[in-house]
Amino acid sequence: MPASLTCYGAVGEIGGNKLLLEDKDTRVFLDFGTCFNEGSDYFDAGIEPRHVNGAGDLFEFGLLPEIPGLYSKRALQNTSLKYVEPEIDGILLSHYHWDHMGRIGFLDPSVPVYAGETTALIHEAASESTYSPLDDHIVKTFRTGDRLRIGSLEVVPIHVDHSIPGAYGFVVYTSDGALAYTGDFRFHGPLGSMTDEFASEALKASPSLLVTEGTRVAPRDIRQDLSEEAVLHETVKVLGRSKNLAFSSFRGNDTDRVNTFHKAAQKTERQLVVSMKTATLLEKLRKDRHLKVPRVGKDVLVYVRRKGSGKIDDRDYYKWERPFLDHGMTATDVHDRQGEVFLHLDIWNFPEIIDIKPDKGGVYVHSSSEAFNEEGEREEGVIKNWVDHVGFSYHQIHASGHAPLEGVRRLVQTVRAEKVVPIHTEHPELFRSFKGRCVIPEKGRKISL
C-alpha cells in the first residue's frame, strides 16, 4: 500500500487530532484526541454520551471514526462495529493535552502508545490523582535523538516548545518519502529554540508532507501576544497593587506558568499555593532531570480543601492526597495571611472563595486563553461574576501555547515541504497565502505522500 495520511479529526477545527498514517502493512495514528467543540451540536453538560453504549453515541454523529481493529471490546459494546484483533501498530502521542490524547481510552489496550518520557510522568501523575486515558495501555517512551522503528516506518521525535513540558513533533520516514508533523508549537515561549531545532531537522528530511497546526491562523487573532517573560512582568505589577489576596486560574500542567507565578510571588513577597493535583504533578516531574520545577513544601505550598466531614481529617482524603496535609494551607490559613498568598484556584473550585472570605480589594489573574466561542464566553462571564462578588479586580495575563500566523508561516517557509496540510485550525484556507502547495484536508479522505 502506498504511503498516505488520512485525517479523522482536526479538520477545519481546533484540536481533535486523529491522523492515520499508512505505509505498506504499517498503520499508526498521530495523536488521538478530542476537539474543543466536539459534539457541541448534540451534547453539552446536561446531555452526555452514554457509557453503556461505549463509543456508540460518538459513532452516531461521526465524532469517532468507525475503523475495524482499532477499538477495545468495551468501547464496542452495544455498537454495530464488531471487535477484531488490533490492526493499528501504535499511537504516536505528541503531548499530554486532551485535544491530542483524550480519546485514547476507547482504543484497544494492546495498541501501544509512543510518548516522550516527560509525557509518561504526566500520565503517571494524572493516573494517581484522577484518571488518564493511557491507563490501560503500554506506554513506550522516547526522547529527542531517538529513532523508533515501527513496521516499515522510521520515526524521529524532535522536541518543540508548547504550554506543557515534553511536547514533540515527528519526522516520519515512509517508503514513499518523509512526513513532518508539528504537533502544537510556538517560538515565543522560554524554549522557543526547540521549535527552531524541529524545523531544522524537518528541513533536512526534505518532507513530501508538512502537517502543521494553525490554531492562531485567523483573519483576526484575539489572543494576547505575550512572552512568558512579559507574563512575569505584568503579574508582578498586578500583585504589587494590592495588599490583599491574589488568586489565579491556570493549567497546572503548564510548568512554565507555575515557574513564572512562583517567581512573581517571590518578587512580591508572597507564597504560591497550588492545588493537590498540581502538587502531585510537580513532585512527579522532579524525576525528570531536564526540568526545573518548584519544590512542594518549600517553594510552593498546597491548598487543602475541606471534604467529607467538613473538617481536615485524614480519613476524608485519598491516599495520594494525605502527604500534602502536613504542608498545606486551609481556607482559614489563606484568610489569615491574605497579603502573603498567591493562590492557584481552578475554576471548578471557585466556591472555596466562600470559605476563604477574602477582604475586598484583592486581584484575580486569569491566565488562560481568551474566550473564542460561546462556551468560553459563558465561562468568562461566570468567572467575572465571582470576581465582582468579592470585590476583586480582573486581569487577563497569558502567553499562548501556539504560534501566531507569522510564526506558522516562518515554520512552513523553513521546512519547505512539497505539500502543506493545515490542521488544528478553523481557517485552513489562509494557508494558501503561504509559499508552497497547500492541501486542505477532508475528513476521512486519503492524502498521498
Describe, in short, the structure shown.
The protein is of the alpha/beta class and 449 residues long. It has helices spanning 56-60, 98-101, 117-129, 192-204, 228-239, 255-267, 276-285, 331-336, 352-356, 374-389, 405-415; strands at 4-7, 18-23, 26-32, 90-92, 113-116, 139-142, 148-150, 153-159, 168-174, 177-181, 209-213, 246-249, 271-274, 300-303, 328-329, 341-344, 363-366, 393-396, 419-423, 437-438, 446-448. It has two domains: 4-219 and 401-448, Metallo-beta-lactamase, Chain A (4-Layer Sandwich); 228-396, Rossmann fold, CATH 3.40.50.
What report would you give on this structure?
The chain is of the alpha/beta class. The chain folds into two domains: 4-219 and 401-448, Metallo-beta-lactamase, Chain A, CATH 3.60.15.10; 228-396, 3-Layer(aba) Sandwich (Rossmann fold). The protein is 24% helix and 20% strand. The protein has a seven-stranded mixed beta sheet. Strands 7-8-9-10-11-19-20 form a seven-stranded mixed beta sheet. Strands 15-14-13-16-12-17-18 form a seven-stranded parallel beta sheet, with helices on both faces. Helix 4 packs parallel to helix 11 (405-415). The longest helix is centred in the C-terminal third of the chain and has 16 residues, at 374-389. The mean pLDDT is 94.
